[in-house]
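hey so u asked for the seq, here:
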Amino acid sequence: MGTSRRRARAVSEKDTLEARLERTLNDSGGAAQVLNGGVGNYNAERYVSRFFKELTPLKPTDIVVHYFLRDAEELPAGGGNILLRHSELAVTLWIAYHRLLDKHGETSLVEHYRSVYDPSAPGFMVMQSKLRELAEYAQRNNIRIYLAMTPDVHNLVDYKFGFVHDIMRKIAEGDGYAYVDLLPAMLGHPPEQLWAMPGDPHPNGFGHELMANAIFPVLAGKSIATTAPAVQN
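ran it, structure tokens below
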């Protein structure tokens, strides 16, 4: 089984999403090995390309694309801010700046992601193409494939990015992914319950537990894929 998403910092190995899923699957009578194939700050184009370049020899039976809002953004091959390209801390601080200091705050990020997920946006089109390429590979090789849509955990009380979840559900289902929306499991939790530490909006151990509990029934074939409840778009 392969996963295509990075894990958060400040979470012990035994408490990560992957470790929790592996234990639960094995405890349920299976014989599973869950591997994290993600790289920090990669987008969909890069982590799918990495799978084809480096990970196909693993011959997974299942592939879970652990998708996040930023995965449709463009990442230029060169130029730009080297810290933002390689440092999760720098990205965290950049987002915090735009949320707390920018005069438009969270509204500016909503507008940003509406532009990222415009059907004509270059990054959006590449993301669609790479996810379709991965889905076609999975179909040819009898691999079960899933897209786990991860919410932005900055504000799960008044969530603003439901429109991205709707878009990704349509893309995933159109390409044959089992779509698992992790928002229902996390919605309503205040930041102090889910953040790795103050100022670091990566999911902590509890956040990983919520995500693992939502993904497990789908992987185990005990539940259909889930969709999010109505949220502000």
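The chain has one domain: 2-219. Residues 216 and 222 are 8 Å apart (CA to CA).
lmk if thats what u needed
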